Give the backbone structure.
Amino acid sequence: MTGARQAAVAAVDWGTSHLRIWLLDRDGMVLDERRSGEGLLKTGADGFAGVLARHLADMGTDDALPAIICGMAGSRQGWLEVPYVDVPAALDAVLGRAERVPGLAREVAIIPGLAQRDAAAPDVLRGEETQLAGVPGLRGAREALVAMPGTHSKWVVVRDGSVSGFGTWLTGELFSLLASQSILRHALAGADFAVAADDPTFAAWLGSAVAEPSTLSAALFRIRAATLLQGMQPAKAAAALSGLLIGSEIGAARQRFGAGVETVTLVASGPLGALYAAGLAQAGFTVARADAEAAVREGLAAAARQRWPQRIKPEVPA
């Protein structure tokens, strides 16, 4: 661990199930990091201050070190409900509207999420706005379509550095529910759900879903039938389920946002990123990869630069 006395700010990603803290120096470089499972679901509204103070004390900081936070800590069930910013919204402006948590010796500010108040397509996000701001070049992009897979996958349209619209797909949550609580749990029994991006079963079922995303409900039961009639094994059933869900998401998002779009910026990490990269390529998109963890960290650093310019040096123009 690098000496905590050099830390300029604590950058915190506080999600539903996870907590990640980075100590950043004046250049925005990481000095130390801490991860835990103390997300929103385990922390509770009254526990945020204590959890953060404990981790930062263990990392060698004192109450003078400010903290910038994104994610579910700013939700209605979180530490402080920070009102959504309505789209269209400039990413830099959203970062600049972080709100201070009252009553603390330490200055702690939470970045707001985004709201889409379209009567036909209401939607919200928290945390992804900070990831978007941390993707290289996106705050200055003339136009971009961004895919952000996860428990609740987001597809975001960025124009001239502003979020103009977005949509949410419950792909990851549906996989978990279907695999553990639906009739398909019998088909997946014993599978470890570690689907490979080059699995031919994944590719085949994904391709059919991309072509016809509206048939997802009927296609899902075919996994059950394939286990009964064709001897499909649990690992292949998991690949088929993953392919159907990711393929239907990509196909539906292409119909909604993809007219004339050739390149999709994929903000993801690890195996999930590989699955989406393969799926997007199969759907005919060119994929520009951005690491999800690096993006949220850079977005938090950008927010800290706005709020505490005396602590974090300005970004060097590309």
Remarks:
- The first strand starts at residue 9 and ends at 14.
